[in-house]
Design goal:
With 115 residues, the chain is an all-beta fold. Helices cover 0% and strands 57% of the residues.
Length: 115
């Protein structure tokens, strides 16, 4: 099982980034998927996730309207489109796949938003 996250970088406030997470070893469509992030000195927090059926999508309140999670089943890849970025979004972003009671994590991709 491998999750390869990419797309992070340095961006000015108000800018956009699209994070990608290519998954191998799982058929993405069958499982809950999502993104967490960890800012310097803070706990890891959930950002967004999609249920295995795709019928339920969660966003943390601070990201509603700015972030969009999606997946491309043909490419077995999930995405996090992040718009109107603010310095508080600076963190390492981690993708995950939930399989039963287990979670498999990507290596993280760093996002830095300058003011």
């Amino acid at each position: 099982v491998q999750l390869q996250a990419s797309g992070g970088g340095l961006v000015q406030a108000g800018g956009s980034l699209r994070l990608s997470c290519a998954v191998s070893g799982f058929i993405l469509d069958y499982y809950q998927i999502g993104w967490f992030r960890q800012a310097p000195g803070k706990e890891r927090e959930a950002v967004s996730c999609i249920s295995s059926s795709g019928s339920s999508i969660y966003y943390v309140d601070s990201e509603k309207g700015r972030f969009t999670i999606s997946r491309d089943n043909a490419k077995n890849t999930m995405y996090l489109q992040m718009n109107s970025l603010i310095p508080e979004d600076t963190a390492v972003y981690y993708c995950y796949v939930g399989v039963g009671t287990n979670a498999y994590w990507g290596q993280g991709t760093e996002v830095t938003v300058s003011s």
